[in-house]
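To whoever is on call:

I kicked off a structure prediction for a single chain this morning and the downstream step that reads the tokens threw a length-mismatch warning. I double-checked the sequence; it's 257 residues and nothing unusual in it as far as I can see. Pasting both halves so you can look.
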Amino acid sequence: FSSCAEAEEGVIQHPSPPPATPPASTSGDVAKRIDPTDFKNRFDLRSEFNQYATASNQLIIPRFEYALSKSLGFRTELPVSRYDPADGGASAGIGNLLTRIAWRAVRNDDYALVVGSELKFDTASNANLGSGKHVLAPYVFAAIDLPQAKSVFFPYIQYGKAIGGDASREDVNYTNMRGSLLTRWPDKMYSFIEYSYWIDHQHSNVTSSQVKAEVGKFLLPKTGFYVRPGTGLSGTDQRFGVYWSLELGLRHFFKNL
């Protein structure tokens, strides 16, 4: 019938509402939020403790990331740090300013490739809170989807080299390789396991390694909290070695402009 005829008979039949769109899975939502190859405006805040062979370090690190687009992002962070040597004489203040640019060069259904560089500036207020050098550190990493395991694997490599700073301070020259596995769990939870291997080219290519295991949960739609303990596996007394570490933090995502 036409709508006019139905109106005249007083029996207008409203069309049935369209079926509701099924909600996206919470694990898929979490994956989109924490996907490091899909850049977003976000603010992170973490507390980090590192126990070294002869000292410990406590840091509060605010981080801001700005997405110029979904494939191009800029990040900056400036730690507030306290360094406690075993023999006393603690130091506290700001550490080195880190900036980072990242570009997603390739992306398809199975994998993505990101290239970029970090530039760390010698801004530490005390010699114990930074390297005393400006360090340029280009990197590349991939994201390989493992759908059957609800996981993503991230191989990563970075080379860092001092390009200036205090001439009296020791040079910085290293390679860092990482392998990380992100797994999505129900109830807006995820886990992240990372193995990191360092080569200190400044000290006859001595090596050190660590493993960290992160567990996180989104308690609010755009805000997640996590805990990330870690332990040294080898070279714990070397420059890039650590006995153990612990991070507590939050990540808040903003709407991209």
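Update from on-call: the warning came from a stale cache, not from the record. Cleared it. Sanity check on the structure: Residues 1-15, 21-25 have pLDDT under 50 and may be disordered.
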